[in-house]
Please model this.
Amino acid sequence: MRLVIDRPVPVLGVNHGNLGFLVEVTPAELPSALMRLAAGDFTIEPYGCLEVDAGGVELETRFGFNDVVLGRPGRAGAVSVDLSVNDLRYGYYRGDAVVSTPTGSTAYNYAAGGPVLSPSSDAVVITPVAPLSGISRPVVLGAEDQLSLTVAPDSAPIAVDVDGIPACELGHGDRLTATMRRKAADVVRLSAAEYASRSRVTLSLLDLPLRPDQLVELVPPELRRNTEAAIGHPEAADRFH
Model:
């Protein structure tokens, strides 16, 4: 998606990971999905991203569709940054910080206790991770707001990741700014209802106190055996259903 920012090139997501909130199809479904794409049987869903700048510090990547994370490169010291919104100082964070888009609100922001933002919302959320002092609750800002985080004199060195990619390191006095860029990329949707339903199920599973293998243990043994037989012998699937 970063490669086609501000270009009208539709992106079809194929899930090769575990969660797949953004993706539309699995690898097995790709051939039929490409046929639908060629036939024009799809809709487009625009996505915004965070555009990041760090003054004179060179960034490996400037665009984040999920989040920007400020954390310690090692275990010594603590991150300490001052928050300003539209050049007005609001407070400070002493602890790692996550700046997230609505898309990324179900990723690290969610794991850190931040809110889930609707994909249709024009908003950005800043969530502190294990704060020692300062701002200790998530802060939701409008998409038009320009936020900046300035490294305080008592801060440890800061490593900045953009969408999980190491972007740069910040030192005392360095200032990172982030603004929302609307409609930065277009994502293909083959079925909006199915995508929304899958995302709700995925989000619900994240809140379960059991891993998938532990969840299977709750299924009655007889039903598990029938399921395994159907999976191992596709011709038995119809009988199982």
User: Anything to note?
Assistant: The first strand starts at residue 10 and ends at 11. Residues 234-241 have pLDDT under 50 and may be disordered.
